[in-house]
Amino acid sequence: MPAQQKKLLFCTAGVLSLACALGTAAAVGTQLWVRGTILCSTGALLVNASGPELHKFIGHIQYGLFSGQRVRQCGLGGRPFQFSFFPDLLRIIPASIHVSVILFCTALIVFALVGAGFFMFNAFGSPYETLHGPLGLYLWSFISCSCGCLIMILFSSEVKIHHLSERIANFKEGTFTFKTHSEHFANSFWTILVCSLVHFLNALLIRFAGFEFPFSKSKDSGTITGAVDLMY
């Protein structure tokens, strides 16, 4: 492939990696990871609410990795409540999983920035056959993509398997019991998915630029080795 086209591909991959790093950093600081509604089951059972009356007992909740807010509805109007995971909810959430998600988000930002730098270095500099060259580009893209996948897996398990929304909704609630009425992942979560796909795309761009995948043997070297073996 001509040098100009390689520069264009590497510049594109570098810009995409930089955009992913910035997007992940922005996503970490928002409360737009999960949105949902919570049902005050105790209040609904007390008045035997059904149909349109049930909406008076359905509140809202949204949260991110560090903070969030909920609006509880128990028939007397909405009452908002702001909360933070550290240190308020540290005792009721699966702390090890939650901290792991934050650490992998940090790793994703760091390796995306490293990948962006090396993509630009390969576009305008003179890379050598080490981690600065094609092998390094594959490595940084693979690590970034893996971090994004782990973030989604761990956070999904925290929300769905450990019922994170219900734990938050029932925080400091002694009389009323809340249940998750509906929940869905919001924009910040899907930003991580897009970033993972972008890093996978970057690996394909490296291959399209003419570099072989790591640990793959070329046919020419195999042919030469076979010819040498036949001589002896």
UniProtKB/TrEMBL annotation:
- Specify the signal sequence span: 1-27
Q: Record's Gene Ontology CC terms?
A: membrane
Bilayer-crossing regions? 97-123, 135-155, 189-209
One short Pfam name that applies is Clarin-2
Q: What does the sequence similarity comment in the record state about its family? A: Belongs to the clarin family.
Q: How does it sit in the membrane?
A: Multi-pass membrane protein
Highest taxon of the lineage? Eukaryota
Q: Which UniProt keywords apply?
A: Membrane, Signal, Transmembrane, Transmembrane helix
UniProt organism field:
Vidua chalybeata
One Gene Ontology term from the biological process aspect of the record: equilibrioception
The record's annotation in InterPro entries points to:
Clarin (IPR026748)
Q: What is the protein's name according to its record?
A: CLRN1 protein
Q: Where in the cell is it found?
A: Membrane
